[in-house]
Amino acid sequence: MNDPYVVLGASPSDSDEEIKKKYRDLVKKYHPDNYNNNPLADLAQEKMKEINEAYDAIQKMRERGSSDNSGYSGSSSYKSRGSAEFAGVRSAINSGDLAYAERILESSANRNAEWNFLMGSLCYRKGWLDEAQRYFRRAVNMEPSNMEYRQAYARMQNADSTYRPAGYQHHGIDLCDICTMMICADACCRC
Known about the structure:
Helix content is 61%, strand content 0%. The chain is an all-alpha fold. It folds into two domains: 1-78, DnaJ domain (Helix Hairpins, Orthogonal Bundle), CATH 1.10.287; 82-191, Serine Threonine Protein Phosphatase 5, Tetratricopeptide repeat. Mean pLDDT is 75; it is low at 66-80 and 159-173.
């Protein structure tokens, strides 16, 4: 599973109530009852499983008195999952609000390794792969010991990769693809 905060579109600095609200909103959106007789029912069920696992993981971490994922063995864990300054950018990229993420990044004077990584993630989500690779390379050069940055850069170099820096993976389909299919299916069902 990915970072549980990213799965819920939350950040470690969010309150318990904010986490719970984001969890409930996602449950309403992806609940399997909403997808009866729908070809996307299996994907919605997988997403619900991921949402529940993420919420449980956050609850367990907070019970132990830790709000970060330092002990979490997700896809790319390291000492923390980023600074509080850029938590909103990570969440925006994950949720597909690329315009907001870009505004925040462009207005930031802190052009550190994390900024370059997030700019690379943003470019990747926009389909600007050459620019994404350039930003990922710069992030790795600035902070070579960061595994998240190194993995992103390495995956960009691998032509066979299905890397999505901030998206849910299911047999090569990411969350944006799922949402698009759901919108199309909903529009078709209304006719």
